[in-house]
Amino acid sequence: MKREQTYRMNLECYLQAGKIATEVRENARKKYHVGSTLLEICQSVEAKIRSMNGEPAFPVNTSLNEIAAHYTAEPNDATFVKEGDVLKIDIGVHVDGYIADTAVTVCYDPKYESLVMAAEAALGEAVRMAKVNTKASDIGRVIEGTISKFGFRPIQNLSGHSLQQYTIHAGKSIPNIWTIGSSFTLLANEAYAIEPFVTTKDGQGVVYEGKTRNIFAITSRKPIKNKVADDLLELIWSRYKTLPFALRWLTDRYDEKDLRQLVDILTKKKNVHSYPILVEGHGKIVVQAEHTLIPSESSVNIITL
Ligand SMILES: [Co+2]
Fold first, then answer.
1. Which helix (H) or strand (E) is 138 found in, with range?
2. 0.85 cut: is pTM over it?
3. Ligand 1 centroid vs 224 CA: distance in angstroms?
4. Cβ atoms within 10 A of the Cβ of 296, count?
5. Which segments within the chain are labelled E, that is strand?
6. First CA to last CA across the chain, in angstroms?
7. Strands 272-280 and 67-69, bridge-based pairing
8. Catalytic one of 109, 138, 169, 256
């Protein structure tokens, strides 16, 4: 009974997070972003999440063109969206640490619209088949098969993931390709994000780490005996726990230059991890679609639908 009650409360948090994430994503899909800066997009999406009583589970990812993932706006980021750009907006919302993760691609070049359709179709097929006991490798096979039918390629080293309270990547990966060998099956009452990434036929279908790093997360709270840096570490912990954060979330309390230096110190001491942007190997356009779902014994809650 206790366990079931706890689960019901968790599910309510997940459903609330999902509802917020869905509305915010659909707003972002409808909006015309050309001329806006990535900073404006991140700030307006995050403000909307907070206005609905959710918290961002990670800084909104605004990854342009050949950048597949993990770019968020810098504190004074002047990068703006241009005609011809393809922008992935990846949104995480948490309620009490329970996370809904969802993404949309907005496309301002008609020649990449079919790429977006392929990602949406692959996601649609994947969420339709994802039930309790479904093999993750079967989901990967269907995602790859659907993308191939459109004549495109999945990004083979990006994958969906299990989610846990305050943990975005909770250890299990849902592949976007057909992998052989051992796999796991989906469990009842566990949350999973499924997120196909698609590139063109002449893409490499692989992403590599780029130089830019503007998303961070705490990996250790062990003090480094530098009072100013340790104070920042505790502030980050009190606000974000182990969830990712951006420098622009801390400029209310710190001067930007000091903040960069302190985060750099904490990164070198391995208290903080920095995430590199992920870039398509042949520099080709990448698109993405994503939902979060929770199977139960009898049905599936696609919480971001
Ligand atoms: Co995700």
1. helix 136-149
2. yes
3. 31
4. 13
5. 55-56, 61-64, 67-69, 86-95, 98-107, 153-154, 160-163, 173-174, 191-194, 197-199, 207-218, 272-280, 286-288, 291-295, 300-302
6. 29
7. antiparallel
8. 169
- Which residue in 115, 142, 113, 117 sits closest to 128, CA to CA? 142
- Indicate the SS3 state at residue 291: strand
Query: Which residue from 162, 152, 159 is spatially nearest to 178, judged by alpha carbons?
Result: 159
The span from the CA of 98 to the CA of 303, in Å, is 11
Query: Of 55, 66, 290, 291, which is the active-site residue?
Result: 290
For 96-150, how does the pLDDT look when each residue is reduced to its tens digit (9 = 90+)?
999 999 999 999 999 999 999 999 999 999 999 999 999 999 999 999 999 999 9
Give the C-alpha separation, 269 to 229, whole Å: 11
Closest CA to 37 of 73, 8, 10, 71: 73
Among residues 101, 120, 144, 280, which one is catalytic? 101
> How far apart are the CA of 228 and the centre of ligand 1, in A?
33
In the chain, the amino acid numbered 183 is: S
Q: Residue 12 is encoded by which pair of tokens?
A: 């309510």
- What is the 4 CA–ligand 1 centroid distance (Å)? 27
Q: Which amino acid is at 36?
A: S
Assess whether 90 carries a catalytic annotation. Answer: yes
161 noted as active-site residue: yes
Active site residue 101: yes
